[in-house]
Amino acid sequence: MKRLIAILFIVFLLIGVSVTEELLLHHTIDNVNSSSSEILSLIDESEDTINTEEISSSLENLKTFWNDEEKNLCFFTSYEKIKNMDESIAKLYYAIKNNDRSLAIENVACIQNYSNFLHYIMGFNLNNLF
């Protein structure tokens, strides 16, 4: 009987962790995609310079959100798997600061692709379980 209770506890613990991971991942992907889409539309709307206050504040919101969520995501995966997002956000910051439109658009696309790729790295499947 004790063994059955221990097995049930472990199964429910795994289910709870999996559901928590999926909810956190879904929340993170949705917010990163919406923030990066907002930045991309602001870049497309600006004609001569992309180093504006509006784009900078949107990027700062994305950086702040990612830094907060990154701490939570590191509980579920290695930092090595998500460090590309940090690098792309840093490159985007300097591309906007230097008014480099093509590099900024490239890094926004990388951020969107990495955020969609997170689901395959961290989503619940049998490969990630073992």
In whole angstroms, the N-to-C terminal distance is 27 Å
Give the oligomeric state.
Answer: single chain
Reported CATH architecture: Up-down Bundle
Would you tell me which CATH topology applies? Four Helix Bundle (Hemerythrin (Met), subunit A)
Q: Biggest β-sheet, characterized? A: none
Poorly predicted regions are none
User: Helix count?
Assistant: 5
Number of strands: 0
Q: Kindly provide the radius of gyration, computed on alpha-carbon positions and rounded to a whole number of angstroms.
A: 18 Å
Q: What is the approximate shape?
A: elongated
Structural class: mainly alpha
Bin the strand percentage. Answer: under 5%
Overall average residue pLDDT: 88
Number of domains: 1
List the helices and strands in order.
Answer: HHHHH
Write down the CATH class: Mainly Alpha
Chain-wise SSE layout:
Layout: H1 2-45, H2 53-73, H3 79-97, H4 101-122, H5 126-129
In short:
The chain has 130 residues and is an all-alpha fold.
